[in-house]
TrEMBL record:
GO terms for molecular function: actin filament binding; ATP binding; microfilament motor activity. PROSITE patterns: MYOSIN_MOTOR. It comes from Aphanomyces invadans. One of its GO terms (biological process) is actin filament organization. GO terms for cellular component: cytoplasm; membrane; myosin complex. This is Myosin motor domain-containing protein. Belongs to the TRAFAC class myosin-kinesin ATPase superfamily. Myosin family. Pfam families: Myosin_head (PF00063).
Length: 215
């Protein structure tokens, strides 16, 4: 005899690597959701959408998921994305950052990203990746000319030099922002049973973007 309360219907899915968003499953109960994310994790699919929320698992190994090519891919897809899962690209922390940045540009309103989880879940590393994406696109963004406008090259050596200095300055700011992470960790991190470099403090990080949405 088995209690009916302990019987759960199973989704007709053989490989959950093909299910990037768990909301699309027919049956959404705890055992099936756990089975789905475990199946994806075994295939190194550490990111999974639950609606517009990104669920992330610490892989405890280095994965080739954060290259400049990945940033470029999600930045290119962001123009038509209304939500992080509104793309053929796989779930990724860069997709969350891409939608936030695109909304900032389109709506001219402040955007917030909340990173929450248990100790050792990878919150700090994912926050660094969010900052990496935002500082990269914020340092390389340029104004898009309208179809009727004409873009003229710099008319003098001084103007060209000015443009070069501006680009170098943006990359310097990007580097400085990313280098704040180890400084803060030196004051607020400690070793725990779960994590050798655990954040022992909460962080509120604000990135400011100016003209032409540049950082």
């Amino acid at each position: 005899m088995m209690c009916v309360a302990n019987v759960f219907l199973r989704n007709d899915v053989d490989n959950f690597a093909d299910v990037p968003n768990l909301i699309s499953l027919q049956y959404l109960h705890e055992p099936e959701l756990l089975h789905a994310v475990c199946n994806r994790y075994e295939q190194h699919a550490i990111y999974t959408y639950v609606g517009e929320i990104l669920l992330s698992f610490n892989p405890f190994q280095r994965l080739d998921l954060y290259t400049p090519a990945h940033i470029e891919a999600y930045a290119a897809a962001a123009a038509v994305m209304k939500a992080p899962d509104d793309t053929a690209l796989p779930p990724h922390v860069f997709a969350i950052a891409a939608v936030a940045y695109q909304s900032l540009c389109d709506e001219h309103k402040n955007q917030s990203i909340l990173v929450s989880g248990e100790s050792g879940a990878g919150k700090t590393e994912n926050t660094k990746l969010l900052m990496q994406y935002l500082t990269t696109v914020g340092a390389t963004t340029t104004t898009t000319a309208s179809p009727t406008s004409t873009v003229h090259p710099p008319s003098s050596r001084r103007q060209r030099a000015r443009g070069t200095q501006s680009t170098a300055s943006s990359h310097d700011i990007q580097t400085q922002i990313l280098q704040t992470n180890p400084i803060l960790e030196a004051f607020g991190n400690a070793r725990t049973v779960r994590n050798d470099n655990s954040s022992r403090f909460g962080k509120f990080i604000e990135l400011q973007f100016g003209d032409h949405h540049k950082i």
